[in-house]
Amino acid sequence: MTEKQIVFQKACWIKAPSEAFKEEKEETVTAEGTGGEVVAGRSESEKEQLNPVFRKCFSLQKTPVRAVLRSSACGIYRIFVNGSCVSHGLLDPGFTDYEKRIQFQEKDVTDLLSEENEIRLLTAGGWALANLLGQGKHFFRDHISVIAELSLFFEDGTCEIIGSDESWECFSSFLISSSHYDGEVIDYSAEPELLGCTVADHLESNLFLQEKEPVARQERIPAEKLIITPSGKRIIDFGQNLSGFAEVRVNGKRGDRIVLRHGEALSGDGELYTKNLRTAKQQMTYILGKDGMNILHPYFSYQGFRFVLLEEYPYQADPADFTAQAIYTDMKRTGIFSCGNEKIDRLYSCILWNQRSNFIEIPTDCPQRDERLGWLGDAEVFCRSAAFNYDVYSFYRTWLKDVASEQLSDGSIRAIAPFNRNGYPFRTSAAWADAVTIIPWELYIQYGDTSCMEEMFPVMCRYVDYLHSAGPEEYLWLSGNHYGDWLALDGPDPRHPLTDKDFIASAYYAHSAELLVKCGNVLGKDVRKYKNIYSEVRKAFRERFIKEGLPTAMTEAGCALALCFGLLEEEEKPKTARKLAEICEGYKNRLMCGVVGAPLILYALSENGYEKTAFDMLLCEETPSWLGMLRFGATTLWERPDTFTEEGIKDIRNASFNHYMFGSVLSWITECAVGIKASEDGPGYRIFEWKPLPEERLGKAGIDFLSRAGRIKASWEIRGKEVIYSLKVPGGVLAGVCLPGKERMELEGGDYSFAAPL
Ligand code: BGC
Asked: Which residue, 27, 331, 406, 691, is the most exposed by fewest CB within 10 angstroms?
């Protein structure tokens, strides 16, 4: 997928005339930045954009043999030809750095045309106009614009182009308001009003054909039950936290008003909990346009929710009238995991739903509050797990283009992409910025495709050059503004965790340099300079941060980094692994580390002789722990595993119930517990290793995984004193098999079964 940059031939960007803006308003806003800083209160003066509908009517004297419609928006849009929706996805044109690159969509509309024709675009602000972090500022711009071009090809070889220009009309919409975070007000009784002709707009962004999958409707979940809260309010419970919207069927009268509020949890007093949404309203208002049956749903906004409060609902509440519609990027499902432990199966389901809820156009941190951003750290730690569940290659690859395009001139990488220029200045942080080396490498290992790596290679080089010059030491990354082992619970404040940030940053410096060398070797580049940087960084790291064979950061994250990033000599590993196991046991195997430690800790344990401690941690149910979240009814993993306790929801800033960071544990489950791991020698599973860890508390475990090299099935099952192992190797694939107590074997395509004592 090399992006095809297209210049529209006759169309220009158009926007609504000034009638499509509400009166200017003055607003004073005070908000908190993501680092907890208070962004000073300030006065905003802005015009509020209505959601224009753009229209072009035209006649055709002759029938075209082919008609191709290209369209896009800076905002969000749905396009109709003669009343038929021809949009690719629900949230076109998708979320990119609109100032630099905007995707467009292309559709063959030949069969829809007749003598008299109409092209209509329904629009809203979407991401481009979103009020990020409640700061009262638009993410990119303060108005919506669209572009469209219909190319008509006739039998006689001629071609005619109808492009958006100032002859297109602009109407008011039944979408009275539509906000990414706040929800929509839809008035079906409102008559469209002609606002005038459109005005040409200027946008310098390059247009690229969208090649990745669009956002689409996915699972439909019927309401589970109706809850009457202690204060007498009615809440519909769907039994699953997700991203999307509630579809409601009502038998009502024109003019009836319905207001629905969405939330992820109920608070201790049994009412809808919305504090964790921060300033996001997640509210849908509908005004019916006709008597009788009406099916209601939003157009351009989605909510992160499990519960819907019927704030205004002038009917009997029947759960049968409510369906939760999940939406996410239409990726191909590739992996299924199951085991003999019902709680671990539920944990898996939580992680799967975390991914579904946050893979909407870009990898977001969470789907509910006024944030929903492409945080690089979250995306990086979850990448391998994500690649088990779904084919995420073009999803990540497209998003990485924005990560790349926003690299600063000194090579540094901000912590979110797409980056917004109007809001909080996101910093360069270790483990977040390193997504530029880690994700392309992971994608290569998982899919065996070098194209993303090739595209990202110059970015990686500039990034490692930046690390080389950052801070006072050439081969260490000291100082800087890092998130560290973000949200670890091993210190007094999870937002300022215990593990030394210089230690973490320097460990990532080494890791990124090493991955850059590996990528360069695969791509046949000259990486001598970076090989030298890597060995110098490793040396400097060891001199400064390894004392008597042990990491100076004596925390879970510190030990895990040292063990997993190759920063210890072989003979030093047992000592650090023992210390790590002791720390874990000291915490009673609870999950005390944060975003940096959690993806690595079980690997660090099980790969160094502490398999039992790894399972103890995985299976721990005491808060904070993975399974501890399930005790409080989690159906998606949370941002902090201690958010809900016996005393109710903790009043904390990071109380999202749908963050996938801790779902990074899935890759350990599939790669170590089940034991299937792609090999660097045959990326894309052309060669893979099978090294299972049968565990009585799981009873059995297996995966069914559609790799790019074919379907792999692997499972083990404990039957009495015996373990039965089964493996399906696709044709043309080589599996290196290490079963407990057996000699290593190499197996080619075929179905295998083995029995061995437990
Ligand atoms: C996000 C995280 C993110 C973090 C940076 C938070 O607000 O939700 O997931 O990685 O900020 O530390």
From this structure: 27
